[in-house]
Amino acid sequence: MALLLAGCGETVQRGWMPEPVTEAANDVATYWVEIWILALVIGVLTWGLILWSIFAYRRKSDDFVPSQFRYHVPIEIMYTVVPIFIVAAIFGTTVQLQNDMLRVDDDPDVVVNVAGKKWSWDFNYVNEDVYIEGVQAAGLHDGEEGLPETLPTLVLPVDSRVEFVLTSRDVIHSFWVPQFLQKLDMVPGRVNIFQVTTTEEGTFQGKCAELCGAYHAQMLFQVQVVSQDEYDAHIEGLRAAGKTGQLGHDLDQYPLQDDQLPKLPASLGRQEGDR
């Protein structure tokens, strides 16, 4: 199996999953492949036993009747207990991986409040006190060039712990960058959080993964992971463009009262109250 995989391309080696670009995504891709290898081993064993039984105990003549067994206690115990242990092991390792994916550090390098809206995204850089206001993607149906330039683009530094604070302005959306191999819903009146550690520079496509209305398919964005110097220059560029402050709950379709505002994590300090 290792020899066969070594001769395959990277896409096959990671089980046709998108190329992972975060620490957790690498763990997910590895676990995905390991589970498939385990499933293949169990499948080959099962198919082998079935084929062996078919040929070893086939009727050899019209007068031949194979030995009949009402039950076989050791085998029945084995094929009851062994699958229980297999399922328990898969369940336990899956929960451990999910806990690692949802682990939240107290002091992330970057905190971004992502606000989903029909049908685009607002990005608040919380600590830097600047923002990006997204508009719906243009050129999807009329064949015009320049679609990537119309997408809201979230710029992040490489080799950094990034916290996403997810909120929604109207209906349920879902924040998904396929190459993160992780996504999370955005629910009105609720705050969901996850963190990633970026490992690769590049431009990665993002989208909404929750059917949210007529133009759900056009709710796209980009993530650019760059060096720290390029990230700092991007933040200064936003300041120079006058995009200072935060885009707050007053832009929500159904604004909440102060006592209804979702509680944001300590990493956001008092800025949510200022919004």
TrEMBL record:
<dbReference type="InterPro" id="IPR045187">
    <property type="entry name" value="CcO_II"/>
</dbReference>
<dbReference type="InterPro" id="IPR001505">
    <property type="entry name" value="Copper_CuA"/>
</dbReference>
<keyword id="KW-0812">Transmembrane</keyword>
<keyword id="KW-0472">Membrane</keyword>
<feature type="region of interest" description="Disordered">
    <location>
        <begin position="249"/>
        <end position="275"/>
    </location>
</feature>
<dbReference type="InterPro" id="IPR008972">
    <property type="entry name" value="Cupredoxin"/>
</dbReference>
<keyword id="KW-0186">Copper</keyword>
<dbReference type="GO" id="GO:0005507">
    <property type="term" value="F:copper ion binding"/>
</dbReference>
<keyword id="KW-0679">Respiratory chain</keyword>
<dbReference type="GO" id="GO:0042773">
    <property type="term" value="P:ATP synthesis coupled electron transport"/>
</dbReference>
<keyword id="KW-1133">Transmembrane helix</keyword>
<keyword id="KW-0813">Transport</keyword>
<dbReference type="Pfam" id="PF00116">
    <property type="entry name" value="COX2"/>
</dbReference>
<dbReference type="InterPro" id="IPR002429">
    <property type="entry name" value="CcO_II-like_C"/>
</dbReference>
<comment type="similarity">
    <text>Belongs to the cytochrome c oxidase subunit 2 family.</text>
</comment>
<dbReference type="InterPro" id="IPR036257">
    <property type="entry name" value="Cyt_c_oxidase_su2_TM_sf"/>
</dbReference>
<keyword id="KW-0479">Metal-binding</keyword>
<keyword id="KW-1278">Translocase</keyword>
<feature type="transmembrane region" description="Helical">
    <location>
        <begin position="35"/>
        <end position="57"/>
    </location>
</feature>
<comment type="function">
    <text>Subunits I and II form the functional core of the enzyme complex. Electrons originating in cytochrome c are transferred via heme a and Cu(A) to the binuclear center formed by heme a3 and Cu(B).</text>
</comment>
<dbReference type="GO" id="GO:0016020">
    <property type="term" value="C:membrane"/>
</dbReference>
<protein>
    <recommendedName>
        <fullName>cytochrome-c oxidase</fullName>
        <ecNumber>7.1.1.9</ecNumber>
    </recommendedName>
</protein>
<dbReference type="InterPro" id="IPR014222">
    <property type="entry name" value="Cyt_c_oxidase_su2"/>
</dbReference>
<feature type="compositionally biased region" description="Low complexity">
    <location>
        <begin position="253"/>
        <end position="265"/>
    </location>
</feature>
<dbReference type="GO" id="GO:0016491">
    <property type="term" value="F:oxidoreductase activity"/>
</dbReference>
<feature type="transmembrane region" description="Helical">
    <location>
        <begin position="77"/>
        <end position="97"/>
    </location>
</feature>
<keyword id="KW-0249">Electron transport</keyword>
<feature type="domain" description="Cytochrome oxidase subunit II copper A binding">
    <location>
        <begin position="107"/>
        <end position="237"/>
    </location>
</feature>
<dbReference type="GO" id="GO:0004129">
    <property type="term" value="F:cytochrome-c oxidase activity"/>
</dbReference>
